[in-house]
Amino acid sequence: MLMKKPIIFIVAILLGACGYHLRGALVLPEGMKNIYLQGGSAEFRDQFRIALKSASGNLVNSSAEAGMIINIVGEDMQRRALSLSSRGRSNEFELNYRLQYELVKGDNVKVLERQPVEVRREYFNDQQDIMAKDNEEAVIRSEMYQQAVQNIITRIQVVLQAKAK
């Protein structure tokens, strides 16, 4: 038992030293620690706040406090039926989430022109279990917002690293 603790401690230190990090974990550049999000739906803002919090970032309440400002220019979530049953009810749906944003530094200098983000998901709609399918759609929508946030943050990181060189 006494040997296990030091071994676990050493392995943890080695994993941290080699640059290993959990999937989905973000490392934010210094300029992205305080971000102001202008526009966007409440669900999108919540997912953005969660992503920043997990990366020791902060979603601030005013543009004056921010190092970066993300302007959400357009946002749209659509749902359409892909297939119908013999009774005319939808068996399969497609969710399509579109977002356009631009990135501005705190001093109103555009860093990134308008960029699109699009996330699509399909799911089967079981007519026998409608309550569970409503919950499934809510979970899928939440995952779509998460993916859009991850895409935006990754693009911003790449842009900031390229401009730093």
UniProtKB/TrEMBL annotation:
<dbReference type="GO" id="GO:0009279">
    <property type="term" value="C:cell outer membrane"/>
</dbReference>
<protein>
    <recommendedName>
        <fullName>LPS-assembly lipoprotein LptE</fullName>
    </recommendedName>
</protein>
<comment type="similarity">
    <text>Belongs to the LptE lipoprotein family.</text>
</comment>
<dbReference type="Pfam" id="PF04390">
    <property type="entry name" value="LptE"/>
</dbReference>
<comment type="function">
    <text>Together with LptD, is involved in the assembly of lipopolysaccharide (LPS) at the surface of the outer membrane. Required for the proper assembly of LptD. Binds LPS and may serve as the LPS recognition site at the outer membrane.</text>
</comment>
<keyword id="KW-0732">Signal</keyword>
<dbReference type="GO" id="GO:1990351">
    <property type="term" value="C:transporter complex"/>
</dbReference>
<keyword id="KW-0449">Lipoprotein</keyword>
<dbReference type="GO" id="GO:0015920">
    <property type="term" value="P:lipopolysaccharide transport"/>
</dbReference>
<dbReference type="InterPro" id="IPR007485">
    <property type="entry name" value="LPS_assembly_LptE"/>
</dbReference>
<keyword id="KW-0998">Cell outer membrane</keyword>
<dbReference type="GO" id="GO:0001530">
    <property type="term" value="F:lipopolysaccharide binding"/>
</dbReference>
<keyword id="KW-0564">Palmitate</keyword>
<dbReference type="GO" id="GO:0043165">
    <property type="term" value="P:Gram-negative-bacterium-type cell outer membrane assembly"/>
</dbReference>
<comment type="subunit">
    <text>Component of the lipopolysaccharide transport and assembly complex. Interacts with LptD.</text>
</comment>
<keyword id="KW-0472">Membrane</keyword>
